[in-house]
Design goal:
The chain has three domains: 107 residues, Arc Repressor Mutant, subunit A (Orthogonal Bundle); 112 residues, Aspartate Aminotransferase, domain 1; 213 residues, Aspartate Aminotransferase, domain 2 (3-Layer(aba) Sandwich). Helix content is 44%, strand content 14%. It is built from 18 helices and 15 strands. The strands form three sheets. The chain has an eight-stranded mixed β-sheet with strand order 5-12-11-10-9-6-7-8, sandwiched between helices. Strands 4-14-15-13 form a four-stranded mixed β-sheet. It has a three-stranded antiparallel β-sheet with strand order 1-3-2. β2 and β3 form a beta hairpin. α2 packs across α4 and α5 runs antiparallel to α11.
């Protein structure tokens, strides 16, 4: 981590709480009253959820640049108003409408739901803000044309002759996905495929299937924040393994598994999110061997595997581990369009049957019309993948040029695939920078959002699938925010950047 004055991991303030308190000093009255009013307002608009644990007094005081007594007085005022509950050894928790904090489980769930600023802010952002939170930009005109052509080939009247409830998925799409995987070197049958409402639902279903409260789940660090939230929402206790230039190291994972009774492992070996790295073939063979020996179920997330920015990656991890308990997750959203909301799970037939029952409880099945459109898109899949790869490669080049020009003191490694750059700040806090960037009209994802243990506050994830003009304006605003942040650090010290308005 960069910055000698940063707090220890356990005492850092969550990213979402910093956002909720943005501008809290404005107003009249003593500081502790203004802080209490800002926290109360955040709870009212559900930026702070019932059960959520507020930071320790020392941590929040350091973050806001005030005395610890100010935070203590604010918490005391909230307690007298019945908005929080304070208990020695347990900390300060937000109270729900029923007057109860809900206990440790409610706190874990509330924090999980709250922390994912990427999903929570969908539809909540200012109309003039440039959204660089995630890689879900509208498709280019050629891809839109392919979508429209596929939609015209769908006979909705014919589809309406069936029940419409297909928890396992539309059979033609299940067959098409199985054929795609087989062609990629992972022999797959139709009965080994479950169609989901995107990769996020796929991970959530697998979390519901495998994770019980208190069960240990091992994930990469950093990783996809939606996976962190899914495992925490299921009650999992998360352990992490670091991501190097070749992804997660099999030796480090083996050592981690030897020290904890893990219930599940989640990996993204191909174009890892957010780093864009690829696990080499030899490491995949070692990882597959570890999977067979340990017997622990592994989720292999291949959501970005179609978006190579250079050489083709090795075969999927599951292809090296016949007989091992490896479940693959994929997505059609990144290549075609996020609005289709289509993903898939590949697993043995009995596991798919069980997951199908869980999906029936969740939604009775994904939209058949979207699935029928996807069948026609997959028939044109090679051409569309080629379009997307050329498109994202061109946009990555634009982003790299913009970073070199506007943020030359930042560092990054060119991703081997995927849709994001994992950029490192030379100093300071990306969580603080994100708040200032919002005031400059650009929304960014600070590094701790990608970490189950709150690391990487010196990193920012930047998507590059946006139109070049959007990237130019967004990075221009970010560069101005960075200059303002640097000035605040020089003038006020590392914990008082909230003075910028």
């Amino acid at each position: 981590m960069s910055g000698a004055n940063q707090l220890p991991l356990g005492l850092r303030v969550p990213v979402e709480l910093g956002d909720a308190l943005d501008g809290w000093r404005r107003g009249a009255g003593p500081l502790h009253q203004r802080l209490a009013a800002a926290l109360a307002a955040a709870a009212k608009r559900q930026d702070l959820l019932p059960g959520m644990k507020l930071p320790p007094e020392r941590a929040l005081a350091a973050q806001l640049g005030v005395a610890r007594t100010t935070v203590s007085a604010a918490y005391g005022q909230l307690e007298r108003s019945g908005l929080v509950h304070r208990r020695q050894g347990r900390g300060t928790h937000v109270i729900g409408a029923d007057g109860a904090d809900g206990g440790a489980r409610a706190a874990d769930l509330a924090t999980s739901l709250q922390r994912n600023v990427l999903f929570r802010r969908i539809g909540e952002n200012p109309a003039d803000a440039i959204d660089l939170l995630g890689s879900c930009a509208p498709p280019s005109q050629p891809v839109r044309g392919a979508l429209a052509a596929a939609a015209r080939l769908v006979n909705v009247g014919e589809l309406a002759g069936g029940p419409g409830y297909l928890p396992l998925g539309y059979p033609p799409l299940r067959r098409a996905i199985a054929a795609e995987l087989t062609a990629q070197g992972l022999v797959t049958a139709e009965e080994e495929i479950l169609v989901t409402g995107g990769a996020q639902q796929a991970i959530s279903l697998l979390a519901s299937c495998y994770v019980t409260p208190g069960a240990v789940v091992v994930v990469e660090d950093p990783t996809f924040p939606g996976a962190i939230d899914a495992f925490r929402a299921a009650g999992g206790k998360i352990l992490t393994v670091p991501v190097g230039r070749g992804g997660a190291d099999p030796g480090v994972l083996a050592a981690t598994l030897s020290q904890a009774a893990a219930r599940l492992v989640y990996l993204m070996p191909t174009f890892q999110n957010p780093t864009g790295c690829v696990m080499p073939e030899q490491a995949r063979r070692e990882m597959a061997r570890l999977c067979r020996i340990s017997g622990i179920p592994v989720i292999e997330d291949n959501s970005l595997a179609d978006l190579s920015l250079g050489c083709e990656p090795p075969l999927p991890l599951a292809a090296y581990a016949r007989g091992a308990h490896i479940t693959s997750v994929g997505s059609l959203s990144k290549v075609f369009w996020a609005g289709l909301r289509l993903g898939w799970i590949r697993a043995p037939g009995p596991v798919i049957a069980q997951l199908g029952r869980l999906k029936a409880v969740a939604d009775l099945g994904t939209s058949v019309v979207s699935q029928a459109i996807a069948v026609h898109l997959l028939h044109d899949g090679d051409r569309i993948r080629g379009l997307r790869r050329r498109e994202v490669a061109e946009r990555l080049a634009v982003l790299q040029d913009l970073l070199q020009l506007g943020l030359p003191d930042w560092s990054w490694r060119r991703p081997e695939g995927g849709l994001t750059v994992w950029a490192r700040l030379p100093y300071g806090s990306s969580s603080d920078l994100a708040q200032i960037a919002r005031r400059h009209g650009v929304l960014i994802a600070p590094g701790p959002v990608m970490s189950a243990i709150g690391r990487f506050d010196d990193h920012v994830r930047l998507p590059f699938d946006h139109q070049p003009e959007t990237l130019r304006e967004g990075i221009g605003r970010l560069a101005r925010a960075w200059q303002a942040y640097r000035g605040a650090l020089d003038l006020h010290g590392p914990r008082q950047v909230d003075v910028i308005v």
